Amino acid sequence: MSGAPASGGTRENGAAIRSVAAVAVAGLLLAGLPALYFLTVHGCGEEEGRLAGVMAGETVLDAAPEGADQRDRYQECDDDDRFVVVGARYRYHGSPEDVLRHYEEVARADGWRPRTAAGDEKAPGCFTKPMGGTTAYLGVEGPDDGLLHVEIVADHAKSQWC
Which UniProt keywords apply (predicted)? Predict the structure, then answer.
């Protein structure tokens, strides 16, 4: 016994190497392509940043009802669906009816139109306006437990909100 491989051993080693290489290439394709997509296409980018800047400049966000005290202002972008949210929260102890009446007036004055639901019925507290190449949705909620939310949501996929 000289320890030399049998003549079929070299062929078997070559087949094994090719099999391992094929599995490695398949793994790279299955894991690598989604990773490449995630790193290059997924998430919020400059386009969403520009949209957020336009939305943040809307005066309706600062037009709170009398007696409301602004708690904070925020701006977000959902990396998965790439929708942009800009809003403000206020401490307010008035009624929801007063809030809706107030925002129907100030939103209309700022170019917002009431969103209609099925049968041309208005969706309370929801307004639309063309903005940044898409349609933006202004939603007014509350006050719940003394907190009023005024929020604009939009994306370039032209989703419908509120």
Answer: Membrane, Transmembrane, Transmembrane helix
